[in-house]
Structures are given as C-alpha cells and as structure tokens.
Amino acid sequence: MEVHFDEEYTIVGGNITYYLFEKTRVCVQSTDEKNFHIFYYLCVDASARIRKSLQLNSPDTYHYLNQDCSQTKQLTKSYPQDTD
C-alpha cells in the first residue's frame, strides 16, 4: 500500500498493489530454491546482541526454516550489516 502526500503532509491519494502468492511457495521451498525469509536472515546474520534480545536460535531449530534450506547454507552475503 502506498500513501501519497502533498507538501503540507496532507493525504492526496494512494495505491494498493495486489500480489498473488502461490501457497506452496510461501510455505516451503523446492530443493533448488533459496529461502529468502527475513526470519532466516535474522537467525543467521543478526549480531549476537540482537539474536540474544530476540531469543533467536539456529535456523535448524525452527520447523519452517529447516524444511529445505540446502541452498541458503551456501548463501553469500549481499546485503548490508545490521546496525546496533
């Protein structure tokens, strides 16, 4: 959803974009697909302080994330580091 404002921060319009998600792709990845779920990235690459404050464990301990992450284990970091 987008909300459009004018120079005085008054709402002047908006737009809603609809996405069609395939249920099978949202729930589980195929063997040759990567898991791009943000929860996976938090478990793997968040700083130790953030993982501790969110009480996060290894992705292998969560059912959703350990279904087939064979490709994600080889994932190269291509996104900015979190900030403390």
Automatic annotation (TrEMBL):
InterPro entries: Kinesin_motor_dom_sf (IPR036961), Myosin_head_motor_dom-like (IPR001609), P-loop_NTPase (IPR027417). GO terms for molecular function: actin filament binding; ATP binding; microfilament motor activity. Keywords: Actin-binding, ATP-binding, Motor protein, Myosin, Nucleotide-binding. Belongs to the TRAFAC class myosin-kinesin ATPase superfamily. Myosin family. GO terms for cellular component: endocytic vesicle; myosin complex; plasma membrane. Residues 1-84 form the Myosin motor domain. This is Myosin motor domain-containing protein. One of its GO terms (biological process) is actin filament organization. Pfam families: Myosin_head (PF00063). It comes from the Eukaryota.
